[in-house]
TrEMBL record:
UniProt keyword annotation of Signal present: yes
Domain PorZ N-terminal beta-propeller: 44-204
Pfam family, one: PorZ_N_b_propeller
Organism of this sequence: Flavobacterium psychrotolerans
Source superkingdom: Bacteria
The entry's keywords: Signal
Keyword Signal found: yes
The protein, known as: ABC transporter substrate-binding protein
Cleavable signal peptide: 1-21
Length: 765
């Protein structure tokens, strides 16, 4: 019992921490993959992969709930809303249960099922059924009671032969008995008033084989077989009502209607079991939806789909409407790219071995998403000229409306003003342009890293072809560079690509470490590889390289971190050599991020490094790496997954976007890019009111600005040198005590003293 109590306390404490820091986080989730729906008299409740939303069917108001609000990033498997208790129950595939109180929005994480001494793959929650204030939870091991009044668990029923665990898909109460449909072991029942339901011998088998669900509806008990038959109880056995064209996925009582959902049909039956409607997916124009569940509220059918969110349809009418919250196409975002105004996202991609055929079972057919001041714009695959496996986004720094998207299967896409203008491939780039991979299908062109140089030329890497480094010049001409000087085959698996201040291109690779190239020095190539004599990388699978404000190059590999002390060494040293960062932890010297699989490194305006990993979340480390400022994981933050795919930063606002395999969130950082002058300095909040508990932000700064804060009489209370474009003051006098109410002067000056700015802030205690 102590173990359970500690787990509950830990989750409660973490939940409180999330809520206290909610203002720093924001969620950007997709609500398109609907797992389950529930309802009250005037609201629809829907669960996507790891987020929820509700819609008031009268006002149309939509409210979303995700990990920023306290949900888990794990996969949701079932949903139930209790109108009587005003609580929503969320069930997960791993057995976690979250109870949301509709009155105050509070959440209770319930881990009892997770903590059961059962195999982890048997804890999935399949269905909730409420009867007299008790919710019967159908799980892959049996049935669990949960009291909504006391928020306590009751008995657990293992109803298989001999008390074994069997997968229960759904329960229903009918004529004083509780019926349980099972995936492989028939339908079993027992008296609902029997105090010994935890004794398997009290349960009777009334039907054999596999059943997807069972539901009480009016004077009938209905059930669906795993083979696709809708049946009803007649006497002591089930008889067939109709044979469905597909296996049923969901059956539910919606008051006046019984609703049965298959992959492409929603069948609606009235009280006499007459079919009054068949909503066919072919009726919905413009998309090809696959249904997952459905319900009816006030004569409107709300249909959950696997990729297109919630589609609503008035019974008897022909029109359809999408009722899904705004969001990206998917939660598993492969790559992102942020500018001051917009954020772009693509969904991949390739697997860890740079194989597009091993990612989602083949070259993917996912679209492109853009987030801006008008919300999300989603460009579907059908509008991309069949370009597949989209892996990277590069935005023209001189023209934000011009965006290039790499396809690791089809070439390079160019968007102008959100419209696809051209797909670059073998047919339209000439002899110096893009090439197909030898031995593969003709359109297999694996473009990955792309980046603009200072002159506006776009540099491109193309894997597994000779002359894999290419450039698209501003005049539209292509040029390619041979790379046999590095290895005889001249072909590589290319990852990301960056350019330093000297114009040197740095390419990450799967098997050849880091490759540097500068065409201005007689097409000079140099490499950084594994081994003390070859560059000192821990492994030659280099995932990312990032150049910081001190011209150091931070390199993330599949087995740790290395730093090249200066990118200038490319021009001066024959062999480029990297070093680990050694830190002291508990008075022991050790390597920072030792053997961590590092996926991305992004440098913020204060020269801190945001480091995303394959399974350990996100680290924010100081400019020299000696201090870990934050380490965000699913256990201490709204991160929906510890597997990070990409990170990018809005340099103006400091918002840090973190794309994971289960959704994207952002953290409101304060390290913005430095400005060129002090014309746009501003202070917020101003005034600082008594209820405010945060810091005062001074934004619009130049780098290394001197900041002095005094009271109105000129007494100095704080002084510092800024890093980046934003500084935070904790409203203390040199960190010792909170300053008193009053007006405080903020004097800002450049290092040379030529440019100055004075601001005021009022503090009210």
């Amino acid at each position: 019992m102590k173990k359970y109590s500690f787990a509950f306390l830990l989750l409660f404490v973490l939940q409180m921490g999330f809520s206290q820091n909610k203002t720093l986080w924001k969620g950007y989730f997709s609500y398109n993959e609907i797992k389950d729906v529930s309802q009250s008299t005037d609201k629809l409740f829907a669960a996507s992969e790891n987020a929820l939303f509700s819609k008031n069917v009268q006002s149309g108001e939509i409210k979303t709930t995700n990990t920023v609000d306290g949900l888990s990033g794990q996969t949701i498997s079932s949903l139930y809303h209790s109108p009587n208790f005003k609580k929503t129950m969320v069930g997960y595939e791993n057995g976690l249960m979250i109870i949301i109180n509709e009155v105050d929005g509070s959440m209770l994480n319930v881990v009892d099922i997770i903590n059961k001494a059962l195999p982890s793959n048997m804890k999935k929650i399949n269905h909730f059924m409420e009867y007299n204030g008790i919710v019967y939870i159908s799980c892959d091991f049996g049935i669990v009671q949960y009291n909504l009044a006391t928020l306590q668990f009751g008995d657990t029923y293992f109803i298989g032969d001999g008390g074994t665990q069997i997968s229960v898909t759904q329960t229903a109460v009918f004529n004083g008995k509780i019926y349980a449909s099972t995936l492989f072991n028939g339908i079993r029942n027992a008296s609902i008033s029997n105090p010994n339901l935890n004794d398997f011998k009290e349960w009777t088998t009334v039907a054999n084989f596999g059943w997807s669900g069972v539901e009480a509806f009016g004077a009938d008990l209905m059930a669906i077989t795993t083979s696709g038959n809708l049946q009803k109880l007649q006497g002591n056995s089930f008889v067939n009502v109709t044979t469905l064209s597909e296996n049923a996925l969901d059956i539910r009582n919606c008051g006046a209607y019984l609703v049965v959902t298959t992959k492409h049909h929603v069948l609606i039956f009235n009280a006499t079991l007459s079919q009054i409607a068949d909503v066919n997916s072919n009726q919905i124009l413009g998309i090809e939806p696959q249904f997952s569940c459905a319900t009816v509220i006030a004569e409107t059918v709300f249909i959950g789909t696997s990729d297109d969110g919630i589609i609503s349809h008035k019974i008897g009418e022909s029109s359809f409407e999408n009722s899904t919250p705004d969001g990206p196409l998917r939660n598993d975002i492969f790559a992102i790219s942020s500018t001051t105004k917009n954020l772009w996202a693509v969904y991949g991609g390739y697997d860890q071995d740079y194989n597009p055929y091993g990612f989602y079972s083949g070259p993917t057919k996912f679209g492109v998403s853009k987030f801006g001041n008008k919300g999300w714009l989603n460009i579907p695959y059908k509008d991309l000229l069949e370009a597949r496996s989209l892996s990277r986004i590069t935005i023209n720094p001189n023209n934000e409306n011009q965006v290039f998207v790499s396809s690791y299967y089809s070439g390079l896409l160019k968007f102008e003003n959100d419209q696809l203008s051209i797909l670059y491939n073998v047919s339209n780039t000439g002899s110096e342009g893009l090439q197909s991979v030898a031995g593969q299908v003709p359109d297999d062109i694996r473009v990955n890293g792309t980046v603009f140089d200072k002159s506006g030329n776009l540099w491109v890497t193309s894997s597994l072809v000779k002359k894999g480094l290419k450039v698209l010049k501003t005049n539209g001409e292509w040029k390619s560079y041979a790379m046999e000087s590095i290895k005889p085959s001249g072909t590589f698996f290319f990852g990301r690509l960056i350019i330093d201040k000297n114009g040197t291109k740095w390419m990450t690779t799967l098997k050849d470490g880091i490759i540097g190239f500068n065409e201005n020095y007689n097409n000079l190539f140099k490499t950084i590889k594994n081994g003390s004599d070859s560059g000192n990388l821990p492994i030659e699978d280099a995932k990312v390289a990032a150049i910081d404000a001190r011209n150091q190059m931070w390199i993330g590999t599949r087995k740790g971190l290395r730093v090249l002390s200066s990118v200038d060494s490319f021009l001066s040293s024959n062999q480029l050599t990297t070093s680990p960062i050694i830190i002291l932890e508990e008075n022991l010297a050790q390597e920072l991020l030792y053997e961590q699989s590092i996926i991305d490194i992004v440098v913020d305006g204060a020269n801190n490094k945001w480091i995303g990993t394959a399974d350990s979340g996100v680290f924010l480390v100081s400019p020299n790496g000696q201090q870990t400022i934050y380490h965000f994981t699913v256990n201490n933050s709204p991160l929906p997954s510890n597997t990070i795919n990409d990170i990018d930063i809005n340099g103006t606002t400091g918002e840090v976007f973190i794309a994971t395999t289960r959704g994207m969130v952002s953290f409101k950082g304060t390290s913005t890019d430095p400005n060129e002058n002090l014309e746009n300095v501003y202070v917020y909040p101003n005034p600082v009111r008594p209820e405010y508990v945060g810091t005062v932000k001074i934004s619009g700064l130049i780098d290394n600005a001197n900041i002095k804060i005094t009271d109105i009489e000129g007494n100095l209370v704080y002084e510092t040198i800024s890093e980046g474009g934003t500084f935070e003051w904790d409203t203390t006098a040199f960190g010792k005590y909170k300053v008193a109410s009053g007006v405080y002067m903020i004097f800002i000056s450049a290092q040379d003293g030529i440019e100055t700015k004075v601001k005021k802030v009022m503090i009210i205690r």
